[in-house]
Amino acid sequence: MNIIRPRRLRATPALRRLTAETHLRPSMLTLPMFVREGLTEPAPIGSMPGVVQHTSATLRKAAVEAAEAGVGGIMLFGVPERRDSCGTGGVDPDGVLTRAVADVVCEVGDAVVVQADLCLDEFTDHGHCGVLDDSGQVDNDATLAVYAQMARVLADAGAHVLGLSGMMDGQVGAVREALERNHSDVVVLAYAAKYASAYYGPFREAVDSCLTGDRRTYQMDPANRREAIREVGLDIAEGADIVMVKPALGYLDILADVAATSTVPVWAYQVSGEYAMVEAAAANGWIDRRRAIEESLVSIVRAGADHVLTYWAAEVATWL
Ligand code: PBG
Fold first, then answer.
1. 246 ligand 1 Cβ < 6 A
2. Average confidence (pLDDT) over 172-176
3. How far apart are CA 250 and CA 252, in angstroms?
4. In contact, 78 and 97? CB cutoff 8 Å
5. Which atom of ligand 1 is nearest to the CA of 309?
């Protein structure tokens, strides 16, 4: 005789809603957006159906729409017209990203948290996240000096949050120190456990990346779990206000570990390849698009993310 029947709580939509352990809210989502210098029309990104490289005008409009949909934040990525070995465009007060930050802040003010990617890969002609030494390796400490300068420029433009995605050792400390004088209230979001992932593939198209080779000397090895706790601990000690795990769906164990130990908010980045896989399967009629999107986001939050960067942010916000 069955007295214990877990199915009782699943019997009706109302009971399921009442007993759900995980909830998504629009404020838990940040929309990553791309702006490309010199565009006159938005340019679709083939491997990310529905996502575009914006002109500065369409970026402003889309940012307002995302804000109206209720997303918690917007993360900006800039694609410059010209690149060089030092990533000079990233520290240009008149550069594409800096101007986009100022434009979007001007448009949405404090209604949404305006975030900027702080990394050099969009601005270097070799496509690496930092500057190179004579042997062609990414020079960690020389890169920190450039990040510090980029942090000041982006903060001057009005960014509320800086997303440190370069995976250089000591980047959080270097940026925190650079911000201390005039921008001590700017939030540092550390991509603390960022793995060298194949799932960033479509992003390369989104930012017209020049990278040949890979980022395995600075991004983490997907095989490593314990090391994520080490990275997170260092970033928090250096002054990170928020830590991120990236990618998301393949790294839910990491997310759960970090959520269990972090003393600061834990975010996850549902990356371009995660987006592309669902869109491609849905376009073929192989998967229920909306259910797959919702399930993936609920899973990421269930594993421990307080907030998720996702290219579906604005759309999902309107569903909730
Ligand atoms: C690097 C950066 C990358 C992504 C965000 N920031 C690419 C990389 O590290 O290779 C990927 C995001 C995505 O795939 O959606 N600044």
1. no
2. 98
3. 6
4. yes
5. 15
Name the residue with the closest Cα to ligand 1, atom 1: 165
Ligand 1 centre distance from Cα of residue 188 (Å): 17
**Residue of 83, 126, 128, 194 with catalytic role:** 194
Q: Do the strands 73-79 and 242-246 form a parallel or antiparallel pair, or are they unpaired? A: unpaired
Burial of 177 (0-12, 13-18, 19+ CB in 10 A): middle
Does any ligand 1 atom lie closer than 6 A to the CB of residue 117?
yes
The per-residue pLDDT for range 89-104, each reduced to its tens digit, is 999 999 999 999 999 9
DSSP β-ladder status, 29-36 and 73-79:
parallel
Dihedral class, residue 239 (left if φ above 0, else alpha if ψ from -120 to 50, else beta): left
Dist. CA 46–CA 53, nearest whole Å: 11
CA distance 147 to 296: 33
Res 251: pLDDT: 98
**Ligand 1: which atom is nearest the Cα of residue 204?**
7
